[in-house]
Structures are given as structure tokens and as C-alpha cells.
Amino acid sequence: RAAVSLGVENKAMSEKISKMTLLVSLVVAVLSGPAALADANDGELFGYRLGDRYIVGPDTSAFMIGLGGHDAMRVVADQAVMPDDFSEVQILCTAGSCQIGAISGIIKPASQQEAIETADRYLRLLRKLYGDWPARNDPNGQIVTLRKSPYVIQVMRFQMPLEVRVNLKFDRDAPENAAWTAVLKRESERYQVEARRRLVEDAASKGLK
Fold it and tell me: How many CA atoms lie within 13 A of 23 on its CB side?
């Protein structure tokens, strides 16, 4: 009887410790949240604001991507304000002036269970901070979207690679998104013209036609 009683007590203590650990993690996130996650009501996240120009420096890590048939730039932010469990913040911006169109914080959990718990923790935090933003779950439960035009916040969980992302972008139907997309298209066209010009010059320098 003593052994059974001890086993029950140990199980209860283990569950209590697990709940306390989760609570502490949430409190830490809440305390650091206002600095890192606020204020999305003004289009700000992780120290950057949608529509602002990201200043690309000589040591900035950046690469070009395709976006709806246009060229855009994805930048690893140099001076992001983020909680310790985030590995990096990526900025999606236009190809010329690097006008910011999306801000994404990336967490790389060690396991699928950790990914689920992490996504749930930040979703609870965001719902606490932005209770007046209507939320919608995608059918598979891997993306939760909070929307209050002109902005959208998403908590996204991916399996390949295993990541959790907290993302802020313009609402698709907002005038601000239309304005940013217009800049994206213009600068993409210029980038493509310049890329073709450099290709021709390079070919000419090598004696090719």
C-alpha cells in the first residue's frame, strides 16, 4: 500500500511540476511579449514595421525569392527584438527599396511535441494581447490567423522543416497591401531589366553572343 501511495504521489507531483513549467514559460513569454510582439495594431513586430524600408548593410544576409511571379527579397534581420526561443527574424521586402511587406519570427523546436506546445503558447499570448482580432483556424490546425485590417497575424507550424513561425503581414484586401504590391511589381520589373542587362554585359565580356 505504501508503494502504491508513493507512486500516486510521485505522479501527482510530476504533473504539478509539468503544469508549473508550462505556466512559467507562458509568464516569461507574456513579460517579453510586449517588447517583441507589440504593437501589431500599428503594424509592428520584433522591432520592425510594415511599410518601412529595411536598411540593408554590408553584412546583411539576404536572398531573392519569387512571389506571385515577381522578384522579392528575403532578409535575415540584423537587429530584431525577439524572445530567446526565436532563432531569427526574416523580413520580406521589395527588390529595390526593401520596403517591408511581412515580418516572420522563426522558432526551431527539438520535437513535434515541442512545436505543438510552442505554437499553442504563442497563440495564447497573441490572443491575450489582441483579443479584439477575430481568429480563424485552417482545416489541418497548423495555421491560426488573427485578422484586423489592415494587418494579419499568423501562428504557423511546419513539419518539413520543423518550425514554428509568428508572422505579421498586410491583409490581402487592405489598401496598404495594394500599395505595397504595386511597389513590389515596379521594383521587380526594374530588377529583371537590370539582371538581363548584366547578363548581356557578362556574355559580351566573354566574347559570347
Answer: 6
